[in-house]
Amino acid sequence: MQTYRRLTKRGFTLVELLVVIGIIALLIGILMPALSKARRQANTTACLANLRSMNQALSIYFAQNQGHLPYYNWYYKTEPDKAWHGYWIGILGDNKCMPDKVICPEAKDPLDFKLNGSSGLGAVNAAWSGELQTAATGVKYDTKSFMNTTMGPGGYRIGSYGFNRNLTVDADKYGTNIAKVRNSSDVPVFYDSVWVDNIDMYNGSTTDQPPLPTSLTGSDAATAQAARDKHKDQFRIWIARHGRAINMAFADGSARTVGLEDTYNLYWTPDWNRYVLPKGWLPPK
């Protein structure tokens, strides 16, 4: 008589299950830093693409205005359209630079400004906002309607980049025309920043170093603004947004990542004294 063996399904034992879970956890631990690094690199690349798009929009403006540098059209109490379209972010918007191009992927959303009292400044991983600014400015049209957009009147703007105000006619640094800008590959135009622009910075010097920030999160910019402390606009750009560096677009149309210690080795003004900050002089975070 033929006998048959009864086949039974065998499941995992508890020990085997724990081993599998441990292996999965180990693989996740190995892969997560690599995935995080890849994400940051992708965001850095996307940020550089944004800055190039911003430069292209500004080039269109120059072509339409015979190379004339923009004015500092920040505030027009009775004519909000002048500020809304005449400030740098409005100029870019009018030349087909879409709202998402002025927002770095590493700093997409603004802070809760009503709670932190920063008047709209951003942070290393947060966008700035015009929500709490005065109406009829370049970043806030009026108080009737609020939209997170750079298009159309009736709202406020958000962004993650700043503009070198020394390139305005009002600053009287480069005259009135972009053609007068020398060393254009090292003249910053747009860059990662916790506010929309900057102009009051310590001129480069090997004997008179600028003040030391307490961190690279952007918090010192809010403190300096609240105290109306002049010559501390560098706190707006000393942020570890792309590692220990920020992305910058230059007057020759190029864009690149610049280490924070090298930000003083650029020509912020025609008479800028360039120098590299000593390694380790800025805080680690």
Give a structural overview.
The protein is α+β, with helices and mostly antiparallel strands. The protein has one domain. It is 27% helix and 9% strand. The strands form two sheets. The protein has a five-stranded mixed beta sheet, covered by helices on one side. Strands 1-2 form a two-stranded antiparallel ribbon. Helix 2 crosses helix 3. The longest helix is centred in the first third of the chain and has 51 residues, at 14-64. The radius of gyration is 25 Å and the shape is globular. The termini are far apart. The model is unreliable at 146-152 (pLDDT under 50).
Can you give me a brief rundown of this structure?
With 285 residues, the protein is an alpha+beta fold. The chain has helices spanning 14-64, 80-86, 88-94, 113-116, 219-226, and strands at residues 128-129, 158-159, 161-164, 188-192, 197-198, 245-250, 255-259. The chain has one domain.
Mean pLDDT comes to: 86
How many strands appear in the DSSP assignment? 7
Broad shape: globular
Number of helices: 5
Q: Which structural class is indicated by helix and strand composition?
A: alpha+beta
Largest sheet, described in full? 5 strands, mixed
How do the strands of the widest beta sheet line up side by side?
Answer: 5-3-4-6-7
Element-by-element helix/strand order: HHHHEEEEEHEE
End-to-end gap: 81 Å
Q: From the alpha-carbon coordinates, what is the Rg to the nearest angstrom?
A: 25 Å
